[in-house]
From TrEMBL, chain A:
One of its GO terms (cellular component) is mitochondrion. It comes from the Eukaryota. SUPFAM superfamilies: Isocitrate/Isopropylmalate dehydrogenase-like. GO terms for biological process: tricarboxylic acid cycle. Transmembrane segments: none annotated. It holds the Pfam family Iso_dh. InterPro entries: Isocitrate_DH_NAD, IsoPropMal-DH-like_dom. Keywords: Magnesium, Manganese, Metal-binding, Mitochondrion, NAD, Oxidoreductase, Transit peptide, Tricarboxylic acid cycle. It comes from Eruca vesicaria subsp. sativa. One of its GO terms (molecular function) is metal ion binding. Belongs to the isocitrate and isopropylmalate dehydrogenases family. This is Isopropylmalate dehydrogenase-like domain-containing protein. PANTHER family: DECARBOXYLATING DEHYDROGENASES-ISOCITRATE, ISOPROPYLMALATE, TARTRATE, ISOCITRATE DEHYDROGENASE [NAD] REGULATORY SUBUNIT 1, MITOCHONDRIAL-RELATED.
UniProtKB/TrEMBL annotation, chain B:
InterPro entries: IsoCit/isopropylmalate_DH_CS, Isocitrate_DH_NAD, IsoPropMal-DH-like_dom. PROSITE patterns: IDH_IMDH (PS00470). One of its GO terms (molecular function) is metal ion binding. PANTHER family: DECARBOXYLATING DEHYDROGENASES-ISOCITRATE, ISOPROPYLMALATE, TARTRATE, ISOCITRATE DEHYDROGENASE [NAD] SUBUNIT ALPHA, MITOCHONDRIAL. Residues 41-366 form the Isopropylmalate dehydrogenase-like domain. It comes from Eruca vesicaria subsp. sativa. Heterooligomer of catalytic and regulatory subunits. This is Isopropylmalate dehydrogenase-like domain-containing protein.
Length: 367, 370
């Protein structure tokens, strides 16, 4: 057993010596059988979805990554996610998806939300960070927004009391608040993050957000090494715009998380480059981090100028989740190199390239 | 059951005030004020902390500019007035109701129970339904954003801040978000009216109607109805997460924003952050019957109170908003230019803008520019 691992190590170090511009200081020790291909459900989605998921497929092919995609067609106008898609996700446990367009004000409830509720993906994670080589107004941004994904304002419980008066229920439970707080602190602990900030509006919504804060405070006590503080959501948005470097990990209920994640994504480079995903106890669905613009405009679809970077970085997160860290590293390095070189950028980053050009550049930069 | 009766009571009260009110509540600024020769009485709440100093500054600038306003000053009392259930006295509220116009400095809400917060009291008693905050980049004060020029109009009475919460069972809490047709129509009317009178071209309604279909859907329906009456103004609808992202990437895309309560709170503070913070942001609350209460939204800063270090810009700009509401546009423009020029010049700036002037020096510089 030790001789086999020794050969493995030798192979890895040999590879390191031949690629001279990157020294690898981390080697990952797989278990026997880890290299067998894993199935991942793929939902191309609407709008720019098919473009960017196709980009991921091409890059995975080029890397010979040990995953294969089971593609399913789902569109935002469907009333429910088809049963076979849910079966597939439950079997594979991991899914990659493009955006699903939600009709505004119509009778159909959002399929994105449905998917999250059925699979109980209670944590949504968006990693907003400055990419080297991409100029933005704000520097030193590295924020992870962890958002409660199942309840809160998006419980979907609305009714008309009398004509002209409508009520919507915002539900906060201790159970959900506790598990999202636990997830946030666990994430911070496992990723060497130093601070967790809870975002709330408990001065107005005393019971609801008060319950959320209580749960966060209780969990914070169990992690004495991580600093915990609280900030009111309107002050938070103001601080994000003025001094984003003060934030590290943020944990929020559903609605505020949506706003904070999109604001943070906007200041760090735009929603075209931020990775993210939704995770639950048993399943994980990876998609473009911030929810704004995940379907894109028709013009972008026609001209094929969608930005695949966000989904590529999310698929790198997915590879790590599937325990293929080396592939994830290679993919991320290639993508970051393409961005920092600045030659191949789509319209939202100030360039003129098409999606395919960016994909080709990434594949060319793969080691 | 009690909630339904509260809503019914509110509807009946508002309906009756519409019928009995002498002023047309759909055109809020229709009250004609006296010409500039007869003085107007306005209520002033200097507030706490740095409040009195900046109020003094405002009075000085207004007198130098020749604004015909007599100030009626009211202070927050130290005991709870049983008629209003708060530290604001009945006389103060009556004064605002009578004068129809007021200027409020920062008030620190005393901690404790058994009384309503000061802002809540003002809002409920004066029926202040819209909060208007213009945000524009001040030339000469550099922030990361140079081309901001937008106005946020926020519905101020209902939505998520209705304060109706209860614990269903242990560990499960419900909070009600209420949207009514009447309140949404009211604020949409004001938004379009404001856009028209101030020469703005576009009104954007911010919502999350793809998720909260009935509540934000009703808000959007009301905005659409009002938009039809103003065909010269472009109307668009933007989902709130798109809006946040666009605001931080390119704030020049927006003109007038109209939103329900919670989104308004967050977006207006976000926009304030884009231009330099709450110390520079004016704000005005519009109530039924043409009541306008301009206020400075920053805190009372007790640590620099009395030291002549405070920045009066927010209160001054709010005063300018008040003057525009009173249709004293000439003086409003004069004072506004004086403030902008003083800050742009950069010679006299208070500490929070990176300078070393005192409040009095800054005020004097503005008066000199008039």
């Amino acid at each position: 057993m030790s001789r086999r691992s020794l050969t493995l190590l030798k192979n890895l170090t040999r590879n390191t010596n031949t690629s001279c511009n990157q020294t690898r200081s981390v080697t990952y020790m797989p278990r026997p059988g880890d290299g067998s291909p894993r199935a991942v459900t793929l939902i191309p989605g609407d709008g720019i979805g098919p473009l960017v998921t196709n980009a991921v497929e091409q890059v995975m092919e080029a890397m010979h990554a040990p995953i294969y995609f089971e593609k399913y067609d789902v569109h935002g106008e469907m009333s429910r996610v088809p049963a076979e898609v849910m079966e597939s996700i439950r079997k594979n446990k991991v899914c990659l998806k493009g955006g699903l367009k939600t009709p505004v004000g119509g009778g159909v409830s959002s399929l994105n939300v449905q998917l999250r509720k059925e699979l109980d993906l209670f944590a949504s994670l968006v990693n907003c960070f400055n990419l080297p080589g991409l100029p933005t107004r704000h520097e030193n941004v590295d924020i992870v927004v962890i958002r409660e994904n199942t309840e809160g304002e998006y419980a979907g419980l609305e009714h008309e009391v009398v004509p002209g008066v409508v009520e919507s229920l915002k539900v906060i439970t201790k159970f959900c608040s506790e598990r999202i707080a636990k997830y946030a602190f666990e994430y911070a602990y496992l990723n060497n993050r130093k601070k967790v900030t809870a975002v709330h509006k408990a001065n107005i919504m005393k019971l609801a957000d008060g319950l959320f804060l209580e749960s966060c405070r209780e969990v914070a006590k169990k992690y004495p090494g991580i600093t915990y503080n609280e900030i009111i959501v309107d002050n938070c948005c103001m601080q994000l715009v003025a001094k984003p470097e003060q934030f590290d990990v943020m944990v929020t209920p559903n609605l505020y998380g949506n706003l904070v994640a999109n604001t943070a994504a906007g200041i760090a480079g735009g929603t075209g480059v931020m990775p993210g995903g939704n995770v639950g106890a048993d399943h994980a669905v990876f998609e473009q981090g911030a929810s704004a613009g995940n379907v894109g405009k028709d013009k972008i679809v026609r001209e094929n100028k969608a930005n695949p970077v966000a989904l590529l970085l999310s698929s790198a997160m997915m590879l790590r989740h599937l325990q293929f860290p080396s592939f994830a590293d290679r993919l991320e390095t290639a993508v970051k190199r393409v961005i920092s070189e600045g030659k191949c950028r789509t319209k939202d980053l100030g360039g003129q390239s098409t999606t395919q050009q960016v994909v080709d550049a990434v594949i060319a930069n793969l080691e | 059951m009690t909630m339904a009766t509260t809503i019914a009571k509110r509807l009946i009260r508002n309906r009756s005030s519409q019928i009995l009110g002498t002023l047309n509540s759909t055109s809020p600024a229709s009250r004609t004020f006296c010409s500039s020769t007869t003085p107007i009485t306005a209520t002033m709440f200097p507030g706490d902390g740095i409040g009195p100093e900046i109020a003094e500054s405002v009075k000085q600038v207004f007198t130098t500019a020749g604004v015909p306003i007599n100030w009626e000053e009211h202070y927050v009392s130290t005991e709870i007035d049983p008629r209003t259930q708060s530290f604001l006295t009945w006389e103060s509220l009556e004064s605002v109701r009578r004068n129809k116009v007021g200027l409020k400095g920062p008030m620190a809400t005393p901690i404790g129970k058994g009384h309503r917060s000061l802002n809540l009291t003002l809002r409920k008693e004066l029926n202040l339904y819209a909060n208007v905050r213009p945000c524009y980049s001040l030339p000469g004060y550099k922030t990361r954003y140079d081309d901001v020029n937008l106005i946020t109009i926020r519905e101020n009475t209902e939505g998520e801040y209705s304060g109706l919460e209860h614990q269903v069972v242990r560990g499960v809490v419900e909070s009600l978000k209420i949207i009514t047709r009447q309140a949404s129509l009211r604020v949409a009317e004001y938004a379009f009216h404001y856009a028209k009178t101030h020469g703005r071209e576009r009104v954007s309604a911010i919502h999350k109607a793809n998720i909260m279909q009935k509540t934000d859907g009703l808000f959007l329906k009301c905005c659409r109805e009002v938009a039809e009456k103003y065909p010269e103004i472009t109307y668009e609808e933007v989902v709130i997460d798109n809006c946040c992202m666009m605001l931080v990437k390119n704030p020049a895309l927006f003109d007038v924003l109209v939103m329900p309560n919670l989104y308004g709170d967050i977006i207006s503070d976000l926009c304030a952050g884009l231009v330099g913070g709450l110390g520079l942001t004016p704000s005005c609350n519009i109530g039924e019957d043409g009541v306008a209460l301009a206020e400075a939204v920053h805190g009372s800063a007790p640590d620099i109170a009395g030291k002549n270090l405070a920045n009066p810009t927010a209160l001054l700009l709010s005063g300018v908003m008040m003057l525009r509401h009173l249709k004293l546009n000439e003086q409003a423009e004069q004072i506004h230019s004086a403030i902008i020029n003083t800050i742009a010049e950069g010679k006299y700036r208070t500490a929070d803008l990176g300078g070393t002037s005192t409040t009095t020096e800054f005020t004097k510089a503005i008066c000199d520019h008039l």
